Amino acid sequence: MSTTKITEEHHNELYRAMVILENPSIAAKITHLIGKPIEKGLELLPASWHEKIGEVTRSALVKATDAAIFTMKDKPNAAPSNWWHKVGVAVSVVLEAFLDYQLWL
Questions:
Q1: How crowded is residue 87: how many other Cβ atoms within 10 Å of its Cβ?
Q2: CA distance 21 to 19
Q3: pLDDT tens, 39-58?
Q4: What is this structure's pTM?
Q5: Are 53 and 42 in contact (CB under 8 A)?
Q6: Superkingdom, according to UniProt (predicted)?
Q7: Which of 1, 21, 50, 76 has minimal CB crowding within 10 Å?
Q8: 19: Cβ–Cβ under 8 A, 6 or more apart, which residues?
């Protein structure tokens, strides 16, 4: 049986990670409080709706992941670029304004 020795610094990092994982942040607690009623509401929907919501959610997450990977550079230690982020924000603002306008027609 081999034993692995870790440095005191690594031990301290592991301890801090454990404390963070065992004590959720205020953001995680608020998210949980907001999400609970949404989960309860979703439970009231028909099963076919659950499947559709799952498909849409999965598709959105895959597209968001693809977009994030697309914007990554192959150059290590390169300075980050906010160009794609700015474009994404601009597109979402325009889309939201358009949809809000359509709702008021």
A1: 11
A2: 6
A3: 888 888 888 887 888 888 88
A4: 0.44
A5: yes
A6: Bacteria
A7: 1
A8: none
How far is CA 98 from each of CA 84, 87, 94, rounded to the nearest angstrom?
Answer: 21, 16, 6
User: CA–CA distance from 69 to each of 8, 31, 46, 49 (Å)?
Assistant: 35, 26, 35, 30
Q: How many CB atoms lie within 10 A of CB 71?
A: 15
Q: Return the axis-axis angle of helices 47-70 and 83-104, rounded to nearest 10°.
A: 140
Give the whole-angstrom CA distance, residue 86 versus residue 90: 6
The answer to whether the beta carbons of residues 61 and 48 sit under 8 Å apart is no
CA dihedral 42, 47, 50, 51 (to 10 degrees): 180
What is the DSSP code (8-state) at residue 100? H
To the nearest 5 percent, what fractions of the chain are helix, strand and coil? 75, 0, 25
**Spatial CA neighbour of 69 closest among 79, 57, 55, 84:** 84
